[in-house]
Design a protein that fits this description.
Largest interface: A-B, 40 and 21 residues
Helix content of chain B: 10-25%
CATH superfamily of the largest domain in chain A: NAD(P)-binding Rossmann-like Domain
Radius of gyration of chain A: 20 Å
Oligomer: heterodimer
Number of strands of chain A: 14
Helix content of chain A: 25-40%
CATH architecture of the largest domain in chain A: 3-Layer(aba) Sandwich
Order of helices and strands of chain A: HHHEHEHHEHEHEEHHHEEEEHEEEEH
CATH architecture of chain B: Roll
Number of strands of chain B: 5
CATH topology of chain B: Ubiquitin-like (UB roll)
CATH superfamily of chain B: Beta-grasp domain
Structural class of chain A: alpha/beta
Strand order of the largest sheet of chain B: 2-1-5-3-4
Structural class of chain B: mainly beta
Number of domains of chain B: 1
Distance between the termini of chain B: 38 Å
Number of helices of chain A: 13
Shape of chain A: globular
Shape of chain B: globular
CATH topology of the largest domain in chain A: Rossmann fold
Strand order of the largest sheet of chain A: 3-2-1-4-5-6-7-8
Largest sheet of chain A: 8 strands, mixed
Largest sheet of chain B: 5 strands, mixed
CATH class of chain B: Alpha Beta
Strand content of chain B: 25-35%
Chain lengths: 340, 65
């Protein structure tokens, strides 16, 4: 049997996909934004299913607290301090070498989102905050690319596929990106809810890519695994005054000179962006005398500070200040050591 | 008044959808409210009156990932 037919035989025996669906998958390209808990499950599904090209994007690196739920990473990745996109790419290539995998280590912003979506048929949401989701939402709806929303926190999960011209967008339901203070950082998350949410996203992706439009879920599914709650809310009509899909103002794509400091999900970290590219070898030399310990690999530089916090520098100019949730404190340390 | 909140019968003192949201301390949360199967826009929460046994779903948007 042809190697390809053998690999995908069970999936092709599933009649709604079949041989023609498999062919469509192999000709498709998807982008996964965020390679944390949701993103790793999404990438695993897309790569095993034989989607032709999978672009994975993440700004962060692998840490021990990720291993409880981020299924593509292991202890070696933590020891090596690899960026998530690189560690995931390495694992995904071993899973299916037929798939073209493109790893991008970057923060997703208004400046690069359009390039990241170029040539993509579908976007899968693996982000951990509504600010980035609104950016994805607006960029996808402007380009006419569907976007599968997924969110998981505590034992609660939610998912929907949002298709420009056919369904409302995320902004139709949510006027602001405020998460109401409930993040993985504050109330935790258990792994089963992540797998289920991402699998709901993945199956809608497969339906869309094989053009099984009648099978598409036209609801927002929401559940709480611990209290056995499950509910499907009809997506209904777009909000009349939606600034994205109706008024076509795409607020997140309006370039402003806003401070790009953001807090990450999952631990005490503040990211400060906006610096030009950082030469890590130079910064290694500069920080070595001042820091308690400095570690450099091909992708990032970590410096343990005498104050107790840690700086992580990336070549694209981002700096993570770890060990604080206080933005002012983070900026003080940034100014003290990076000096801009 | 008895209302069916997320599938469970609850007795609470409320006249409008807004009162229900306040009762559960959910103001300011990323929330979508559905009453008898229809989404109620946030601007309408203070205007839509609840009635006995109305089925109300309070759906929190989930941000983590």
């Amino acid at each position: 049997m042809d190697e390809r037919l053998e690999r995908y035989s069970r999936q092709m025996l599933f009649a709604p996909i079949g041989e023609s669906g498999q062919q469509k998958l192999s000709e498709s390209a998807v982008c996964i934004i965020g390679m944390g808990a949701l993103g790793t499950v999404l990438a695993n599904h897309m790569v095993r299913a034989g989607v032709g090209m999978v672009r994975i994007v993440d700004r962060d690196y692998v840490e021990k607290s990720n291993l409880q739920r981020q299924m593509l990473y292991d202890e070696d990745d933590v020891r090596e301090g690899y960026p998530k996109a690189i560690a995931a790419e390495r694992k995904l290539r071993r899973i299916n070498s037929d798939v073209k995998i493109e790893a991008v280590v970057a923060d997703v912003t208004v400046h690069n989102i359009d390039d990241l979506l170029g040539g993509m048929d579908l976007v899968l949401d693996g982000t951990d905050n509504f600010q980035t989701r609104f950016l994805l939402n607006d960029a996808c709806f402007r380009r006419g690319i569907p976007f599968t929303y997924g969110g998981a926190v505590s034992s609660r999960g939610m998912s929907a596929i949002l298709v420009p011209g056919k369904t409302p967008c995320l902004r139709c339901f949510l006027p602001s990106a405020d998460s109401g203070g409930q993040t993985c950082d504050t109330i935790g998350v258990i792994a089963p809810v992540v797998d289920i949410v991402a699998s709901y996203q993945a199956v809608e992706a497969l339906k869309y890519l094989v053009e099984a439009d009648k099978a598409r879920r036209n609801s927002l599914v929401t559940f709480d695994l611990w209290s056995n709650y499950y509910y499907e809310m009809k997506l209904g009509e777009a909000a009349k005054e939606c600034p994205c899909c109706q008024l076509k103002e795409y607020p997140a794509l309006q370039v402003t000179e806003t401070d790009q400091t953001v807090s990450l999900c999952g631990r005490s970290t503040v990211q400060i962006s906006g610096h030009g590219p950082l030469n890590l070898e130079q910064w290694h030399k500069r920080l070595e005398p001042a820091a308690v310990k400095v570690e450099l690999n091909a992708y990032l530089l970590k410096a343990e500070l005498p104050e107790g916090e840690r700086l992580v520098l990336f070549p694209d100019g981002r700096v993570l200040v770890q060990g604080t949730e206080d933005i002012v404190r983070a900026k003080t340390l940034y100014a003290r050591y990076i000096g801009y | 008044m008895q209302l069916i909140i997320n599938g469970e019968a609850k007795e609470l003192d409320a006249t409008t959808i807004q009162d229900v949201v306040v009762h559960f301390g959910l103001e300011g949360r990323p929330l979508v409210v559905e009453a008898d199967g229809e989404i109620v826009a946030k601007e309408q929460w203070p205007d839509i009156e609840v009635r006995p046994l109305m089925k109300i779903e309070l759906v929190h948007f989930v941000g983590g990932g």
